[in-house]
UniProtKB/TrEMBL annotation:
Species name: Achromobacter dolens
Location of the tRNA(Ile)-lysidine synthase substrate-binding domain: 277-346
Similarity-based family: Belongs to the tRNA(Ile)-lysidine synthase family.
GO BP: tRNA modification
Reaction it catalyzes: cytidine(34) in tRNA(Ile2) + L-lysine + ATP = lysidine(34) in tRNA(Ile2) + AMP + diphosphate + H(+)
Name the record gives this protein: tRNA(Ile)-lysidine synthase
InterPro entries with a match to the protein in the record: Rossmann-like_a/b/a_fold, TilS/TtcA_N, tRNA_Ile_lys_synt, tRNA_Ile_lys_synt_N, tRNA_Ile_lys_synt_subst-bd
Amino acid sequence: MTSRPASDSTAAGTPFPHPVSPDLIAALRRALQALPRPPGRFAVAVSGGADSAMLAVHAAAVARELGAGVALLHVHHGLQAAADGWRDQVEALARLLELPLRQARVEVDAAGGKGIEAAARDARYAALARLADEEGIGLVLLAHHRNDQAETVLLRLLRGTGLAGMAAMAPLTSRDGLTYLRPWLEQDRTTILQAARQFADATGWHAVQDPTNADPRYTRAALRELLAPVLDARWPGWRAIVARHARHMAEAGEILDEVAREDFAALEPGADGASFSLAAWRRLSPARQAHVLRHWMAQQGARMPTEARLNDLLRQLRGVHSLGHDRQLRVEQAGHVVRCHRGRVWIEPQPDPQTPASR
């Protein structure tokens, strides 16, 4: 990892010397002011593309208004031959904006079974967490916009995701102890690209182009290049409609989370939440049985089961004796074990077969 020292940001109230979009400025200002506490300092994840570069530019402008400090974070994946050039462009942008820049180079585990896109995403988030921690920053801005949100909804729909997945990207999320803010989820990308062109005309700085964004061998690019043009021709406003659908799903998900918490509280849970009463669970309707089971597993850090595995677990829990001793119920689920004993359902981490048993 390397860093470039630079001034944090100039004094509040000084004119910003570069062109900015009023719509993008307003959206960013609203998102920052809606936080529980206004950040004294925050960071922007910058790849060098138009979206993240414009977020950096507009963040620098808003930070001057608010008297806040801004740092740029760049992750070099090493997956493209042009990646060194992207790093150089980000460094040039940092100098132009007079903002500090921290960088990390990561190794992407392409053979880990996740797929190259997911592996690169995980490596990027891990690197951002390290960089932010080194800077003492707890808030990082991401440049996802309405087009990204619409694509995410479609991809998750095609993958068969549930209600929570259909909510797509949330404006505010936490990961690895870091808070991520996406202030432009309601902004169309055309607004961002127009701002990028105006910035380029005024400064001579140009955003980089990632060829994988238009390579249909990659899942998101395939949707963007093959499916989106058809939707554009038939339903020109589809992105706004799909993004609105994501908001509605997020609202529905919040309501169902409240229901699941209330249902679980009525199941006579153990002090650590790792167990509940089988008899109380059976008094719920079938749909709420399934929903509270997912909620419980998520709270205990277990991965969500497939539909087939969840249905099998539901069948077994509905069929076992109410005291849980007519037969041994033991279901393994991605590193956890669900079992039933003396009328209670338990979940616990599955022992590592490589770890010697204690004596």
